[in-house]
Amino acid sequence: MKKFVFIIWNIIISLNYAQDIVYVQSICNELASREYAGRGYTSFPNSKDIGIHKAEKRIIQEIQKIGAYDLKKYITKSNHFKKRISFENLNFTNKINPSELSINTNNILKSNISINDKPLLLGIDYLPDATCPPIDFSGELEYYDSLHYINQEKKIIIQLEKKLMHSASPIQEDFALIHIHQKSLSSKEKKIFCKIKIDAKVEKIFSDNIYAFIPGTQYPDSFIVFSAHYDHLGNIDTTYFPGANDNASGVAVLLDLLRYFKTHPHRYSVAFYFFTGEEIGLVGSQYYVEHPLFDLKRIKCLINLDLMGGGSEGIMVVNGKIFEKDFQKLETINKEKNFNIPIKSRGKAQNSDHYWFTERGIKSFFIYTLGDITAYHDTQDVPQNLKFNNYEKIFRLIIEWTNNF
Ligand SMILES: [Zn+2]
How confident is the model over 364-383, as pLDDT tens digits? Predict the structure, then answer.
């Protein structure tokens, strides 16, 4: 009988976790779908829906469904807040900036290129650099070296790449840099004939960070913060960058953690920051440390999640080599609970939103998964690639870790 109960219990537990993965996958499928246009600052032709705004609305809707508080609204309605929770030590910023964050972005709206009269496929054969100015050119480019063709007078550079990767830029350069896949252009010709038509303009787009939180049971004025950026590289014309691993996956895991802490509140308040503008230079998180909702010192620890869809080769913990004691705790839990996830650590890196918090002296980590996924900043970063290997274990490891803060 005992054995039977044990088996049933295990099935229930595994069903629960299976459900978590199903939830996380479904959020990734949705946020990385065409409907969200790559969660960037433009919309598809003949549409007014800007991808990042759609994603923001959807995440807020999910937070409300889960039943978490909007931290910004909660703080501004401070009387209501104080009645419920004592925040004696929490020096909320007196003036909470209600205005949205404005982001400058060079939006590439249209792009057509042919070389020696052969049209190239956007995202597969080539990508204009994120800094590309508008250009309407028909003429020759000359061999410069084994990786470049140029037209000095018209300021056009073609660069051959092994792998095409897009990025985001707040500015335009005065020269046009175009990345072409090695498979689509050999470097043997002395001259190539190109037709290049690119429409691009720098625009100012308003976009907000999203802040949710679950009040702590014992120390509500101290916070554990989870963060993940929800922006990605958007679209160029009808081509879009799905950003499934980067970072629909991190957003989905954050929402899953939010669901967990809603039903299992921590002794500290747990906040969930969904940052905008990461791809354009960690703009949303920088804005936050410059306009914090409360004294930054009240953050016990920040854990940033990005690229969470892999995992067969474990996880990387950025700042593990900076905050060694806490990193050791993570390793001990991993052993003691038999999760046995391969865990690597690194020093400081300006590669995601934890960075500004580290710079302000706040204990912060950036966790990303290793293995499984090679797509990065390209049109192949699709939800079908996401494996979420070891997801249950990584999820539980993070929860157990926060119990030790
Ligand atoms: Zn990215």
Answer: 999 999 999 999 999 999 99
Distance from residue 234's CA to the centre of ligand 1 (Å): 11
What separation in Å is there between the alpha carbon of 386 and the centre of ligand 1?
A: 15
Fold observed for domain 18-100+208-403:
Aminopeptidase (3.40.630)
Domain boundaries, the chain: 18-100+208-403, 104-204
What is the CATH number that goes with domain 104-204? 3.50.30
pLDDT recorded at residue 18: 54
CA–centroid distance, 189 to ligand 1, in Å, is 34
Sheet containing 176-181: give its strands across.
Answer: 118-119, 101-115, 191-207, 135-145, 148-151, 156-161, 176-181, 126-128
pTM (2 d.p.) = 0.91
Question: What is the distance in A from the centroid of ligand 1 to the CA of 361?
Answer: 24
Extract the tokens encoding 287: 């804005």
User: What per-residue confidence (pLDDT) applies to 94?
Assistant: 44
Question: What's the 18 CA to ligand 1 centre distance in angstroms?
Answer: 27
